[in-house]
Structure formats: C-alpha cells, structure tokens
Amino acid sequence: xxxxxxxxxxxxxxxxxxxxxxxxxxxxxxxxxxxxxxxxxxxxxxxxxxxxxxxxxxxxxxxxxxxxxxxxxxxxxxxxxxxxxxxxxxxxxxxxxxxxxxxxxxxxxxxxxxxxxxxxxxxxxxxxxxxxxxxxxxxxxxxxxxxxxxxxxxxxxxxxxxxxxxxxxxxxxxxxxxxxxxxxxxxxxxxxxxxxxxxxxxxxxxxxxxxxxxxxxxxxxxxxxxxxxxxxxxxxxxxxxxxxxxxxxxxxxxxxxxxxxxxxxxxxxxxxxxxx
Length: 276
Hints:
Oligomer: single chain
Distance between the termini: 40 Å
Number of strands: 8
C-alpha cells in the first residue's frame, strides 16, 4: 500500500469505533438510525466499502467487519461454507446487539453468499437483504482468469501494474478509472487474505439460500460485471429472482466492484428502504 493510501485509510478508520467478538474485527461508523451491516467480498476486508461509508453513516447506524480468514479477523477452516461464516457472524452480532434489534444486511460478491445465509438464520430480525454482484450462481458465475500477483517483497513499481491489470479484469468496467487507492486496497487485502473463496463462488449456494430468506431480497449487478456472464446470464438471474419475488436491478456500464465505481448509486439503493 502506498503511503498516501495508507494515510487515507487510517484517517477514516480512526473515525470508527472498533469492536472485537471471538474471531471477528468489527467497525462501527455511526450510532443512530436503522442498523445497516455491510459484508465485503472474497480476498477483501471492510475497505471494499470505503467509498460508501461517509454517504451512509449520516443516515443510519452503520457497521462493517472483516470476514473470518480475511483482514484483521481470525482464520477459519479452509473447508468452511458460507453458513459456517454466517454462524460465526450470528454469534458475534448477538454478543454486540443482545437487544435483538432488527437490521438491514448488504453483501458484496462472496459476502453476499455469507449474507444470504446470515439473513436466513436471523429470520424476521433481518429487515431487508441486498446483494451486490453476488457469487454462488453455479454455472452462471464466471471465474475470471487472473495473473498471479507478484511475490511478497516485490517493489511497488513492479507489483502495482499486476494488481491494476487484475482489477481491470475482475473488479472494474472497461472504461472505469482505477486509482492508486483502489490498487493499494486490493494489494493490502490480498496480502492479509488467508481464506480462498473462489471455489465456493462457483457453487449454487447463494441461489439455493434465497427462498428461505423471510426478509425482502434485492439483487444488484453492474451490467459490465465480469463475473456475471453478460446479458443472457443476467437475464437468467432476473428470471430466477422473479420466481421468488426478489428484486433485480442493473447498473448500466458498472463493473463488479460497484460500490467503488458507482458509490452514489449503491448508497441510494441501500438507503431507500431505510427511509421507508
């Protein structure tokens, strides 16, 4: 991570209240309004939501965390399923929030798989579940080929172009600008990742979890999401979601990491149900 990016991340993190439950590192960004929990994607951390925090924290009680095996949280077995992740999160939130207050959940990519299982476990306590670029659609999910990152200790000038190329292939739309902060966050997250979720992303776990969620479900994709498989695959998802009365929304021209590329649009999607 570059020095400028590290200063930016540390300055934002200094404004959060940090919490620990067994095995989990949580970040609380505000303390008033409806409770919203954001779950990041595979090989990531809370900072997948860095572009959204300031716009959300003024309107809700906002929480993020590092999923097990990622970021600052403790590890988890390599054989863990999305429901294993959800069980650990459920134990943590029950320790943090014993008042049984309802909450809204949003999950990105692999975090959407975990979020679906968490919403299922919470039943009526989950008020709404929003999935962004959800993995776990079986053959509809595209496994994007990536260049192996440079070995640890490689100087930034050599490592950064590889990270940027992988971000272009997987996380951003073809026309999006990829700034130094995005490259730095990606590099730092990869360096701390101890759980490989790519195999789980190819399963149908997300799709199979949806019918058992009692809360309203809303699924969002960028039309240029490299993992989504293009127009026909997105239309197939929309049809499946319509069968279970789940919402489907497409962000034109946006890639996989929609929260970073189109933060205002994502924040509007997340805030709309909180206002009502």
